[in-house]
Amino acid sequence: MSFSAANIAALIIAASFAGGLNIYATVLTLGVLARTHWVALPPGLDSIGHTWILVTCAVMFTIEFFADKIPGFDIIWNGLQTVVRIPVAALVAYHASSQLSPQMQILATALGAGIALASHGSKTLVRTAVTPSPEPVSNIALSSAEDVLAVGITWFATHHPIVAASMAACLMVIAFLAARALLRMIQKPLKKLLRPDLATEPQKPLG
Fold first, then answer.
1. How many C-beta neighbours within 10 Å does residue 3 have?
2. What is the DSSP string of 105-161?
3. pLDDT confidence of residue 194
4. Is the Cβ–Cβ distance between 120 and 88 less than 8 Å?
5. Cβ–Cβ under 8 Å, residues 186 and 132
6. Of 25, 20, 21, 18, nearest to 62 (Cα)?
7. What is the pLDDT of residue 10?
């Protein structure tokens, strides 16, 4: 991978999207690649391969792997992870763009945080829509797909950053549209469940 401004920007876009889904899987993947020198990463990401970072991310990824698959609790977990995913994604973007100008580095950091926020928000909206489902299979399948996607997109971004960034952008749009559609579908049932008086209250005649 050449460290041109375009490739670095594409890597940041893809990694930030993955970080919004699962920041621990994203950082762990980058850290393992940096530690093993499997692929060349921007110089600013060399420190991501430190042992304490790998161990911390591995432990937290294991916890998230199970916590994120418990219906109901997954929404609480994702809410708490808001204060982790966005700042850490911004930090990764900041270090990845260390060889760019200071102005570009600030822009890259803001871009990383914004994309991670959008990805995290879309994931949380989809989970909020899927969690009321009485069977746990959909939650487990969705969470597992997110884990695989976070690792896959991150790995792919280190080999084909432009393609990975394009995939991340498309997936973000799809996730947003899916979340919106699902929320509209469950809006009425949720209103009836939370406010049964509205469903039984007779409508006043017009005029």
1. 15
2. HHHHHHHHHHHHHHHHHHHHHHHHHHTTSSSSHHHHHHHHHHHHHHHHHHHHHHH-H
3. 57
4. no
5. yes
6. 25
7. 95
Is-contact 75 131, C-beta < 8 A?
yes
Q: Which structure tokens are listed for 35?
A: 């530690």
For tokens 């996607």, the residue is 149
pLDDT at 188: 63
C-beta separation of 29 from 83 below 8 A:
no
Query: What's the confidence (pLDDT) of residue 178?
Result: 79
* Sign of the C-alpha dihedral computed for residues 97, 103, 106 and 109 taken in this order: negative
What's the rounded Cα separation, in Å, for the pair 67 and 160? Answer: 31
pLDDT tens column, 163-205? 999 999 999 888 888 777 877 776 666 566 556 555 455 555 5
Distance CA 169, CA 165 (A): 6
Q: How far apart are CA 195 and CA 207, in angstroms?
A: 26
- Residues 94 and 120 sit within 8 Å (Cβ to Cβ): no
Using 50 as the pLDDT threshold, list the residues of the chain that sit under it.
199, 207
Reading the block at residue 67, the tokens are: 């916590």
Residue with tokens 């911004």: 90
The residue assigned the tokens 């792919």 is 156
